[in-house]
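Let us work through a complete example step by step.
Step 1: write down the sequence.
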Amino acid sequence: MPSSSASGVSGGIFDLEALTAQLAEADEEAQDPEIWADQNRARTVMRRRAELQQKMATAEALSEASDELEILAEMARDGDQGVDAELKTALNRLIPELNRIELTAKMTGEHDTANSFVEIHPGAGGTESADWAQMLLRLYLRWCERRGFDVEIIDEQPAEEAGIKNATLLVKGAYAYGNLKSENGVHRLVRISPFDQQSRRHTSFASVHVYPEIDDEIEFEIPEKDIRIDRYCSSGPGGQGVNTTYSAVRLVHEPTGVIVTCQNERSQIKNLASAMKVLKARLFELEIQKREEKLDKLKGPKKDNSWGSQIRSYVLQPYRMVKDLRTGHEVGDTDRVLDGDIDGFIESFLHWSALQAHKK
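Step 2: predict the structure and record it as tokens.
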């Protein structure tokens, strides 16, 4: 049972008593042997159980912090010497946790808790842009490592000289999409080109497309007649063949022109299954966008940062600065950002998004 002081931080989504009861129900349902006969039901229950466990951990951490602060505050009121330093230390430890909880509370979108696909494509510019796309790929892989997200590389195609032609990642973990949706758009890099013998400054672009993984229980059928399946040999840097079997798969959705490729597995069956999962998520997202566009027309014109717009600039020359053009958030330590420290940009985007939603 929660302590009496826990009631100060309970209630709402972090009501310890209510969460304990809900988790007990989920545990009981998960232990039902018949649950595995229905895979959709099993996935729903296990996902719900994982979400409750995460909320429980947060609620317990808040309860412990509340108890500690209450004791320290009481000691301070009693004139205990030296307690001020302890109280300051406790507050410094608690504030980041409260900020994280506040941000999570802002992730109220329908798919914010879902896993996330991340696609990276270089813009025009040949080797420069291909190299920039690979730098972004590394950035997101390092961010996932920092945050404890699991990553599956669905597809990665190397470019001829350096960098990548494209890459598709599946980031797995609670609120993966809620965090990464901030990265959706065009990223601009300004630097002295390592590929220019005259060491001139170049501007490169790469697009990042982020969309949620769609649960299997969501009914979204794609007619077979609408899909063209191309099979080919996987290729490595410089067009070299990775293997001699036709294991790589390219899916083309004829009505929309959406193309998905997958060549990372040696098995054609596995590549086809992964590509179909990505295609389903892409088409589902397109359907959601169509619905939102219809609503926007009814609401009237408004300024929007949509897919294809430049969202962030990474300047390495003549000065060093990374700036988000939507929120105004900027960081001077470009190396840290390129090494995956983008939490500040994600947080500022979530705050900005909440403010934009409030203005509608």
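Step 3: interpret the result. The radius of gyration is 24 Å.
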